[in-house]
Amino acid sequence: MTGSGTSLLADAAWLALGAAFLVVLGLAVWGVWGARSLVRREFMSFFYSPIAYAVLVVFLGCQGYIFSGTLDLLNASGPRGVEWPLQHGLSSPVFWLVFLAIPPLITMRSFAEERASGTLEMLMTSPVRDWQIVLAKFTAALAFYLVLWLPTLLYLPALLGMEVQQIHWVNQKGSILALLGALLLVGGLGLGAAGRFTGNDWGLPAVAAAALGIVSLLGGQFIAWHETGHLVEASFQLDPAPVVSTAAGLVLAGAMFLALGLFVSSLVRDQLVAAQVALAIGLVFVAGSYAGSAAEGGLGYRVAYFLSVPLHFERAFTRGVLDLGALAMYASVAIFCLYLTVRSLESRRWA
Amino acid sequence: MIQVSQLTKYYGDYAAIRDVSFEVGRQQVVGFLGPNGAGKSTTMRILAGFLTASSGKAIVAGHDVLTDPLAARASIGYMPENCPLYPEMRVAEYLDFRAGLKGLHGAASRKRVEEAMQRCWLSDVRRQLIGTLSKGYRQRVGLADTLLADPPVLILDEPTSGLDPTQIIETRKLIRQLGERHTVLVSSHILSEVEMTCDRAVIIVGGRVAAQGRLADMVPAGGRLEEFFLRLVEGTAAQPVGA
Fold this sequence. Notes:
The complex is a heterodimer of chains A (about 350) and B (about 240). Chain A has three domains: about 1-25; about 35-160 and about 245-350, no CATH class; about 165-235, no CATH class. Chain A has 15 helices and two strands. Chain A has helices at about 5-35, 35-50, 50-75, 85-90, 95-115, 120-125, 130-150, 155-160, 175-200, 205-225, 240-265, 270-285, 300-305, 310-315, 325-350, and strands at about 160-165, 230-235. Chain B folds into two domains: about 1-75 and about 150-245, P-loop containing nucleotide triphosphate hydrolases (Rossmann fold, 3-Layer(aba) Sandwich); about 85-150, no CATH class. Chain B has helices spanning about 40-50, 70-75, 90-100, 105-120, 135-145, 165-180, 190-195, 215-220, 225-235; strands at about 1-10, 15-25, 30-35, 55-60, 65, 75-80, 155, 185-190, 200-205, 210-215. Chain B is globular. Chain B starts with a strand and ends in a 9-residue tail after the last helix. The interface between A and B is medium-sized, with 32 and 34 residues.
């Protein structure tokens, strides 16, 4: 630390901000944990309705089409090719059309149906707080959204040209840690599942084990990056870093659209109206990239870039750049929409 | 157990209830009577925590519903009119979910769900989808839901509406049984039912309490509740607001 007083103050302020953020995050997690039966019910109810399956099929079909197109470009001979493979898929209007329609379809049911059928009254007379209800529904929607993207992880080995060169014995602290972490993760998940089937409440130890497992896995992997010869030595023909940044962008952008859809759903009674309004508002975040070319550097261009999600992906995330401004926008819009949803729910009591 | 004092609720300019005050003591079964639109559901919703009153006080099991809402809601088992349920869930699954919301998990939850299902004669239909159940069974699911956390206070809004005669008799029996261990506030506009299940009643007409107390005291021996009730409803403009 440099000796100047203002630097110390700045450090203290950052520390305090970080601590405050962690406290709020911890409070949110504790609240969602308290309403975990609502999270479970909401998540399962996605799979009881045919819309989820329609969404899954269309989405994965679209992804498969993009994947095969990208692979063709990568394997093409001659002066064709693609510099950033993920960019090819995530820039196409086809993808964004499908992507834009999905969060409204996922969230249209959350509050609108409960209001229409009267079950919202049952929720609001239970001993759970309003923000717990909103966060629980959001968590379930986000979990479903992640399930939507999970099968696309299968594309990665092919897309990145992964080749396994050597498999090493587990004899370095990084690899031991990573393996232990993986075992803990699987163990934690198994414990949770077993608890569900035998009726014991092993939720807390299961989640703790899984969380510890993830931390240990990531920590071991991180340590191993600084040593040679990790468990499985694989080489990638293409840079795998864009995958991480794209994933971060997708999770947070999805969270933003889901929070938006959740908010709209809490305002209307009809599911279709909720879906359409959410889609219309979502268009605001996409329109910029198809608005035609404004003068680069001009105010219009800068505003359009700031709001337009596809441009963020095209220019930053798929190239391995973590555009923190864009991520901050996604996170803040999501948090703001969730806040408005809690307010909207509260206002029902004062109607 | 329930103390309501000067409760008022305005929807815009319309006063749904005005200066409603009554008390329900421990382990009493009290009937909440009144014509349609009198404000029964509004009062019950305020007690259950779904609505907030425009003014007045409501205290349930020692907790003020405005300042201590979570503790108040935790002491209430509430069943609204038309008993809303999720038709795509199974009975046991739904009760498990509701138990989770009330803070019961794991083994304790399973035990309480079993007990509630047994008390409401639902053990045979535990794996059935709620959407395929008849009205009578659905009301029973709603009743079982109210019993899950074994709350000291039960607030039931028209628990026998839409049921057939045998189901009505069973539900009445159940409510009488529940009155031995819980404090029950039952709303109805079926007078004979209130006469059979409750010892006390609060009669609400036009948003105000018209009469309250023991049924035996309100209706003179040999008289009928129906006549008393009709007199109250018709004469409500001329009738002074009841104690």
